[in-house]
Every structure is written in structure tokens, then in C-alpha cells.
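Could you help me review a protein record that somebody else here produced? Here is the record exactly as it was handed to me:
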Amino acid sequence: MKNELLTKISIVIGLLILSSVVFSLLQNKSVYEISLGRISSNYARLNAKEGSQIIETKKPFEKITSSNIYRWDAKLYKSISDSAYTNTDFYFKERLAFYPLFSVLWKVSNIDSPLIFIFNYLLFAFSLIWLLNLFKKSDTDNLFIFFIALILPSSMVYYLPYAESLFLFTFVAAIAGLLQKKYWLFFIGALAFSMTRPAAQIFIFAIIFSDIRYFLLHKNLLYFIKEVLLKALPFVLGIFLVTWIQYIYSGSWTAYFDSLTFWPVESGFSNKIVDWSVEGFGMTVFAIFFVAIPSLIYSIVWGIKVFGRKQNAGAQPLSLFSGDKEWIREYIFNTSVLFIAGNLIYTFLTSGNVLNGFYRYTMCVPSFYIVFFLCFEKIKIFPLKYKIITLGLCAAGMMVFLSNVIYGGDRFRFPYTGLYILVALFFLLIIEPYISYKKKWFITAVILIPAIIWHVYLFNVYLSDGWIFT
């Protein structure tokens, strides 16, 4: 166990150093021009009288400076850290759309400058180590899937001064409370989780739908009510505390919902499909067809199965706070799948085909990593041909979608690199049990090269004030 922990820490530090070295090299004009500059462009923001404009340009990577550390959401989190929700600047109303806990941690820790990037990445890595320790046995597969989780193209978001790392950490703390039979730890973790990002609201519905499904089996109404209340209480209380804090500063109990008007809302299913960037669009397409739609199908099948299990009706129900580890893992897995499916349904009904940031809200959340860690363990019992067929159907659906969507242009450009890396990594995870230890790590090492380049490329887009992450 100790050796595995040291290996994981070494992996985390090694990837951080490697990313830093590659990023620094691409700041050199000569290195950039003979390498990445041949196949990609960077971004620059031009501020004119009629408004700002983002253009593609050929130039080396940005230096990290005090003026480009805080972009997009980071600018608002930093503003909350500095001034809470006081009406002191242009971003007052926009700040109300963001939950405060990450900003509070930022202020209390007094971390500033580029160290905030390193802090968020290390918090992300520690959360993954903790989650794996809670959910999976110590073995070589554990190390392998941990490594893959770190280099997923979407994981680059965890380098940024955003709330995602804290969101993951607090949820893992809540799970630890469940597995250790410590309701107080679950309560604190869930409370903090729900004060970090508004996505916690969707998780409450996932809990309710999960418990309705179990209620259809045990038919014990009082038990159902008790379980829902015990599970939902810290989440609801956390959201109420955020609402109360915002009320103190704004004078409105609906300040969060009022602030959403600053983000244009589209309507209508016939609108053209668009995104903020081709880079984000590529990863979003993967998230839709390889993560969200399979989650929706699984949720429907899982729900329907309850009607074929009449023999369990009236059985003594298990509580999330007293069940064994396997039952708790299964409950958290199913609820996480429901969360991802719910996010897809919410986006489909409300986005008006504007897919801005969907991959981030699907793959940069605790539910994704729970499903990611447990799913490939679950499917090992199935023959390889069924797994290949499933992956092929996901890929076929994606290709049909891309062939009928105008947005994004040529699908073989560099901005789609994140999409192809994700497909390659998921395919590797499917075939991993059937290839030798050396071969799987050799393939991973080959994929690592474009994965690191993609990470530092996206990080540079962030510094350049490009439309990728918000």
C-alpha cells in the first residue's frame, strides 16, 4: 500500500514537471515554430471599440504573468475571494452565479500567483488517490487507471483556478464518511460539496430518483422518507447557506437565478449546434456519445429492471449509512450515472443546442470519476467482442452526428486532438485486460506525448483569454 502511494505521488509530480517543461519549451519561438506551430495556431484577443474579438495567430506560448493568471471563471472566483458578493465592481451580478466555498478557501489559504495552478492540480490528484483507495483494491490496474485519469484531455480544467478540484475533494470526503460509517463526515463533505458549485442541485435529484427506484423494491414508505431526508439534508442546507449569504449582500433570495440572465439562453431544438470553441466542441462530442448517452441508457435499463424483481418486494431495505461497502459503492455508482444522465437531459431541454462547456459539466465532476473507476471493473466480465461492439456503436453515433453538424469545420484539424485522444484512451481501457503489462504501458506512453501537448496547449489558450473553459 505504501509503495503504491509513493508510486502515485511520483506519477503526479512527474506529470506536473513534464507538463511544465513542455510548456516552457513551447514559449521559445524557435521550438514552437518547428513543432506545434506547424500543425496548430494559438489565440489572441483584440480589444477594439466595437468589442473584443478572438483571432487565431501563429505565436509561441504565453508567459505566465499577473495579468493573465485570472481568466473567465477564475476572474470571478478571485473577485469573490477579494470582495465576497459586495456591489463594488462591474462583475457584481455575474459573481452571484458562482458558489463561494472555493473562493473562501482561496482567501483563507492566501495562495496567489501561479501557485494556485499547482494547488488545484495537487488537490485534484490527492482526491483521485483518496477515491481510488476508497473504491478499488490495491493492484497494478489501480495504478494504470489512476494514470489514465490524470492524462484525460478534459482533466486539464483541474489545473485552473476553478472550483472543480474542491468539488471533487468534498464529494470524496462525503463518500469516505459513508464507507467509514461516520455520518458527521458525510454531512460536512456533502454540505461543503453543495456550497462549491451549483451542479450539486442536480445531484439531489439523482439521490431522489435512486431512492424511488429502491422504494419500488422494498415498499417501505417511512424508510424511504427517512433515507431521503438523511441523504438530502446536508445538500439542501448547503444550498440554503449559499442563498442566505447571497441574500445578505444582494437583498434578493433569488440572486443566483437572477444572475443567470447574464448568460444568454437559447431556445428551440431546431437551432444550429454551436459551441464556444472547436477544442471544446470535440471533447463535448465525446462526452455526449461515450459518457452521457451510455449513462442515460444504463439509467433507463436500471430503472426498468426494478419491475422484474418482484421477488424482492418487501425485503429488508439497506441503508446507505449502514450497508456494507459493496452496497454503498453500488448505490454511489448508480446515483453518479443518474447525475450524468440528468445533466444530459437538462442540457437537451434548456440549451437550445448551445453546447458550451458540456464536456466540463459531464467529465469534470465527481460522478464521472466514480463511474470511470468502477465501470471498467464491472465490464471485465463481458466478452471482448461485446465491449468492442459497444465502443463501435458509440463511435458510429458520434460520426453520424459529426457528419450532420456544420459547426467545427474539418474534423481532422489539430483542435480535435482532444477528441481523438479520448477515443484512444477509452479503447485502451477496453483492451487492457487482454494485452500484456508491458504493451499497455508502452501504448500509454505513446498516447502520453500528445496528451501532455494537448494539456499545455489548452492551458495556453486559457492564458490567451480564448473561449474554451467557461
About this structure: The chain is about 65% helix and 5% strand. Residues 59 and 244 are 47 Å apart (CA to CA). The mean pLDDT is 85. Strands lie at 42-48, 51-57.
